[in-house]
Amino acid sequence: MTVTRMYPRLVVSDARAAIDFYAKVFGAVPGESFSDDSGRIVHAEVSFGGAGVVGIKDQGDGDEPVSLIMALEVTDPDEVAAAMEAGGASVIYPVADHEYGRGGRLRDPWGIQWMLMRP
């Protein structure tokens, strides 16, 4: 057996809104998307440039949101944090200087935590 691909999948309460938020805040690019007969997204992909792809789906069918921290290295964590707050995210740890770099953590409107950092 050979693993050919691995990526995280986020389970959220409103996948379409989450995809729009990630596109606006992070510049993520929506990819393929599949919905069931009710219109609920059962699988969508969002590309975060060279950082990789994240799968996103609406909760249901036994899939419920879970606590998750996504670590995201960015060139300007202050700018990204401000854009996240403007989009409805809440600050867990404000962006500040640390011995390992500049960073902070925010929670998006779907409960996903984003650790923003510039090493």
Structure description:
There is one protein chain. With 119 residues, the protein is α/β, with parallel strands linked by helices. It has one domain: 2,3-Dihydroxybiphenyl 1,2-Dioxygenase, domain 1 (Roll). Helix content is 18%, strand content 43%. The protein is built from 2 helices and 8 strands. The strands form 2 sheets. Strands 1-4-3-2 form a 4-stranded mixed β-sheet, with helices on one face. Strand 6 and strand 7 form a beta hairpin. The protein is globular and about 50 Å long. The model has no long low-confidence stretch (mean pLDDT 94).
Structural key phrases:
119 residues; alpha/beta; 2,3-Dihydroxybiphenyl 1,2-Dioxygenase, domain 1; 4-stranded mixed beta sheet; 2 helices
